[in-house]
Write a structure and sequence with these properties.
The complex is a heterodimer of chains A (about 375) and B (about 110). Chain A is α/β, with parallel strands linked by helices. In chain A, about 35% of the residues lie in helices and about 20% in strands. Chain A folds into 2 domains: about 5-115 and about 210-220, Thiolase/Chalcone synthase (Peroxisomal Thiolase, Chain A, domain 1, 3-Layer(aba) Sandwich), CATH 3.40.47.10; about 120-205 and about 225-380, Thiolase/Chalcone synthase (Peroxisomal Thiolase, Chain A, domain 1), CATH 3.40.47.10. Chain B is an all-beta fold and about 110 residues long. In chain B, a hairpin with a 5-residue loop joins strand 2 (about 10-15) and strand 3 (about 20-25). The model of chain B has no long low-confidence stretch (mean pLDDT about 95). Classes of the chains: A alpha/beta (about 375), B mainly beta (about 110).
């Protein structure tokens, strides 16, 4: 058994979903599309991972029933932006162990503003009781202060973050499902209205509706239309520091060394990286923890590897959440499915030439001041 | 902040009855020594480390900007508090609670 991703499907992200659309219909459309891509039938599926934030009161078992899949393995992740990668990691192990043979991971959300705002305000008891009464407006304020810490510690400027955001916007031009594809200038970035100082409009991902699905099974089941993508190694971390630090290191700092050792390749071997970009600061923090950024030289990485057109290192080639849109649970799948797409060489206008290896991360579950959950997967093109 | 609500001096932390370490927010077991001996205590003073102004809140009409700060107590508890106005880094503040929510006043 060589567990692999053999089918993918994404729905277009949109700020304005059709009135009749719901998270559940998006899930059905994503699953159907991925099964078509994998040339599998619904009855082939015996494992189901659900990465959805807005299906209440329904749970994964309810969706299995509604979707019509009979299962030997099921899971539902609730770790925010880390959920999709975490679920991929668990599914990989389930396939290796034989607990399931064909696993569909469905990520979807069609947020309704009032419900989404209420869910954010009461995300956990700490947020409900200690932050929301202060006038907290969602994680923007927390990551505004984290960004200040990162700027001070690493000598970063507003323009440095602008290079990250503009680079991702340039990639988004080639992504048909992205919400924002038009070019962004540094003037527009720097002069955008402040949301929470120093974060401006373009530092915060646009909430959207979206859905995606991957089908994982033995690589031999992959149709001839594309090449399967395998997982060389995984890393996961939860509550890595009891929220006692500055948030500039993520849980990846605890697991990346072992992950690279397990993968048998290094950060230098990666052809691209897709890191969960709820905010530009967190892309940089994760790249630093993955050791793609060397010696904590974040500023040098931005100026030499991201901002320069020729020879730049591909980061968040879908445009990331900041340009493609943040579709709740589907937002956490945006990075992994983009790496998979690139390694299948199905990237269209944004294809990274000859991509063979890539790393995808998820980051989320803001317990109090910053995210506590991470997941990472080193993915490879199987040929 | 709700001007008509009751406030209490200091913010509630939990302190380990075995090793004495204090935590904010409150914990169930001591992350330092593992003891099941957490007791409520108060933190009353802190210093401002970072501040931000919440200028926009999606879906809220007539939103008034709110000042938030990350502050550190002498025992290194790190707390996100509401402030009545701007307070530069290094400002010493007194902590108080309204309900369970923590606030600071210079």
């Amino acid at each position: 058994m060589t567990p692999a991703i053999i089918g993918i499907h994404e729905l277009p992200n949109t700020r304005h979903p059709a009135p009749e659309a719901s998270t559940l219909t998006y899930m059905a459309d994503a699953l159907s599309g991925a099964l078509d891509d994998a040339q599998m039938k619904l009855s082939d599926v015996d494992g189901f991972g659900m990465v959805v934030f807005s299906a209440d009161p329904d749970k994964a078992a309810d969706l299995a029933w509604r979707l019509g899949v009979s299962l030997k393995w099921i899971t539902q992740a609730t770790h925010g932006g880390s959920s999709a990668v975490n679920t991929m990691c668990h599914a990989w192990r389930a396939l290796q162990s034989g607990d399931a043979s064909v696993i569909a991971i469905v990520a979807a959300d069609v947020p309704v503003q009032a419900k989404a705002r209420a869910a954010s305000a009461a995300y956990n008891s700490a947020r409900r009781d200690l932050l929301t009464p202060l006038g907290y407006s969602g994680p923007n304020s927390l990551f505004a202060m984290l960004t200040q810490r990162q700027m001070a510690k690493f000598g970063l400027s507003k323009e440095d973050y602008g290079h990250m955001v503009i680079s991702q916007r340039n990639w988004a031009k080639g992504n048909p499902i992205a919400v924002y594809k038009e070019p962004l200038t540094m003037d527009e970035y720097v002069n955008a209205g402040l949301v929470c100082d120093p974060l401006g409009r373009y530092d915060c991902p646009p909430t959207s509706a979206g859905a995606s699905c991957i089908i994982m099974a033995d690589a031999s089941h992959c149709p001839k239309t594309h090449v399967p993508v395998g997982i060389r190694a995984i890393g996961q971390s939860y509550n890595y520091d009891n929220q006692a630090g500055d948030g500039l290191r993520t849980g990846l700092s605890k697991v990346s060394a072992k992950m690279w050792e397990q993968a048998g390749v290094s950060a230098e071997d990666m052809d691209l990286a897709c890191c969960y970009d709820d905010y530009p600061a967190m892309v940089l923090a994760q790249l630093n923890d993955l050791r793609i950024i060397k010696n904590d030289d974040i500023k040098g990485f931005i100026r030499n590897r991201v901002a320069i057109g020729d020879g730049r290192f591909p980061v968040n080639t879908s445009g990331g959440l900041l340009s493609a849109g943040q579709a709740g649970g589907a937002g956490g799948m945006l990075g992994p499915i983009e790496v998979i797409r690139q390694l299948m060489h199905r990237g269209g206008d944004r294809q990274v030439p000859n991509a063979k290896l890539g790393v995808a991360t998820g980051y989320g579950q803001v317990l109090y001041r910053y995210g506590s959950a991470v997941g990472a997967a080193v993915l490879e093109r199987l040929s | 902040m709700n001007d008509t609500a009751d406030t209490t001096t200091g913010v509630t932390i939990s302190r380990c009855g075995k090793c004495g370490t204090g935590y904010y927010p409150t914990r169930l077991l001591c992350p330092n020594c593992g003891a099941n001996a957490m007791k409520p205590d108060k933190a009353t003073d802190a210093v401002v480390e970072e501040t931000t102004v919440v200028r926009h809140n999606a879906g809220q009409q007539n939103w008034q900007p709110r000042h938030l700060a990350t502050v550190r107590t002498p025992e290194n508890q790190i707390i996100v508090v509401g402030l009545e106005g701007p307070a530069p880094r290094g400002t010493k503040i007194k902590l108080f609670e309204q309900g369970l929510a923590p606030y600071g006043r210079a």
